[in-house]
Amino acid sequence: MNRVVLIGRLTAKPELRYTGSNVPFARFSLAVNRTFTSASGERETDFINIVIWRKQAENVCNYLDKGSLVSVEGRIQTGSYDAQDGTKRYTTDVVADSVEFLESKAQRQNNMNNANNQMDNVTPYDYQNEASTPSVNVENDPFADFGDSVSIDDNFLD
């Protein structure tokens, strides 16, 4: 059985593309926190490539943005190709059967505003003192402490 269930945040806004036969698809990366912390007390994150097809790809591109919290159900698919330099490259993607939106646009905007407001009240000393780092008050978001923003080169998704 090949079944995957993930909950995480989009690392960038998905882009809608079409196959040669005009079938819509989208690729995006999902940041998923691990359930445990490292020896230094930090939570590590995995970045998982997702591919979604047809109407759901259109919905994902129309309604989700960087930072959106989603649940993805699908299957793992592996593949390989020959790179331009002659080396063999291997790929692993989750082909999504469904993507469920776990927060509304208003909730996401409210979470971002709360984080920005708390950062406005931080003094330069606070950045040097980890104990005084502000926390974001988010009620139902298990990934609220996700951390810094993520920047991924566009070539990474191709």
- Round the Cα radius of gyration to an integer and report it: 18 Å
CATH superfamily: Nucleic acid-binding proteins
CATH class: Mainly Beta
Question: Which strand-content bin applies to the residues?
Answer: 35-45%
- What spatial form do the alpha-carbon principal axes imply? globular
Question: In CATH terms, what is the fold-level topology?
Answer: OB fold (Dihydrolipoamide Acetyltransferase, E2P)
**Number of helical stretches of at least 4 residues:** 3
How many angstroms does the end-to-end distance come to? 28 Å
State the strand order across the main sheet: 1-3-4-6-5
CATH architecture term: Beta Barrel
Q: What's the overall average pLDDT, rounded?
A: 79
Instruction: Return the structural class.
Output: alpha+beta
Order of helices and strands: EEEEHEEHH
Number of strands: 6
Summarize the structure.
With 158 residues, the protein is α+β, with helices and mostly antiparallel strands.
Structural notes for this entry:
This protein has 158 residues and is of the alpha+beta class. The chain has one domain: OB fold (Dihydrolipoamide Acetyltransferase, E2P), CATH 2.40.50.140. 20% of the residues lie in helices and 41% in strands. It contains 3 helices and 6 strands; from the N terminus they run ββββαββαα. The protein has helices at 54-63, 105-120, 124-128; strands at residues 4-10, 15-18, 24-37, 43-53, 69-82, 88-101. A 5-stranded mixed barrel has the order 1-3-4-6-5. The protein is globular. Mean pLDDT is 79; it is low at 122-138.
